[in-house]
């Protein structure tokens, strides 16, 4: 049997070719390319456009365009309304995913900057939907983050991140959290009970850093700086070996001093 030559193969196999430098060009799927061209054409018409117009603008044969438009509509990337095609809800999900990815990159950039500046692991966390949410961490093998040996969400009473987030809640919010995640000492340095913790939080000055020493894990000291945007409680935190606890004062002062500029950079990332 004769083998098909590249010119004989249908374009859904590959539109790739070998470049002059001897490296193979990427394998491209023609039908995917044409579908993307149709989406791009549809995006240019806020009020929608008929299939014939989209096919012409995308440079796609009309019979092929009908098949692709039907598929894109089925997958909700397009909607057919009164004979014209408009962008569908799946495109909006792509936009949101891209925006969320951009916010996450911004958070990672901020944390990396502070990790390099402080020479210590840096954490960003939110209080969201009634739970502590550790969003991102920046560390290195030489300065590793604290190992989560006990679930951070269930042990907010024992680490600086959780205590700082709880300090930003009102009394009712704190009691609600502790009713779902009761205080349990994790080390000899941990706060022993809920009432002791509530009194400590009530006595603390609002929006001031929180420091804990070996309450979550032996050999570790941690500090957290509060950040509030609207009704969302957030923190930036650092951890150090307990033997270097004296460094916490300097690192915390640096974070607290620059919290305004940090908050401006993170303002649009809080909802990640």
Automatic annotation (TrEMBL):
One of its GO terms (molecular function) is DNA-binding transcription factor activity. It comes from Streptomyces albidoflavus. It comes from the Bacteria. Residues 29-89 form the HTH iclR-type domain. Residues 1-25 are annotated as: Disordered. PANTHER family: HELIX-TURN-HELIX TRANSCRIPTIONAL REGULATOR, ICLR FAMILY (PTHR30136), HTH-TYPE TRANSCRIPTIONAL REPRESSOR ALLR (PTHR30136:SF24). GO terms for biological process: negative regulation of DNA-templated transcription. The keyword DNA-binding applies. Transmembrane segments: none annotated. Keywords: DNA-binding, Transcription, Transcription regulation. Residues 1-23 have a biased composition (Basic and acidic residues). InterPro entries: GAF-like_dom_sf, HTH_MetabolicPath_Reg, Tscrpt_reg_IclR_C, Tscrpt_reg_IclR_N, WH-like_DNA-bd_sf, WH_DNA-bd_sf. PROSITE patterns: HTH_ICLR (PS51077), ICLR_ED (PS51078). SUPFAM superfamilies: GAF domain-like, Winged helix' DNA-binding domain. Residues 90-272 form the IclR-ED domain. This is Transcriptional regulator.
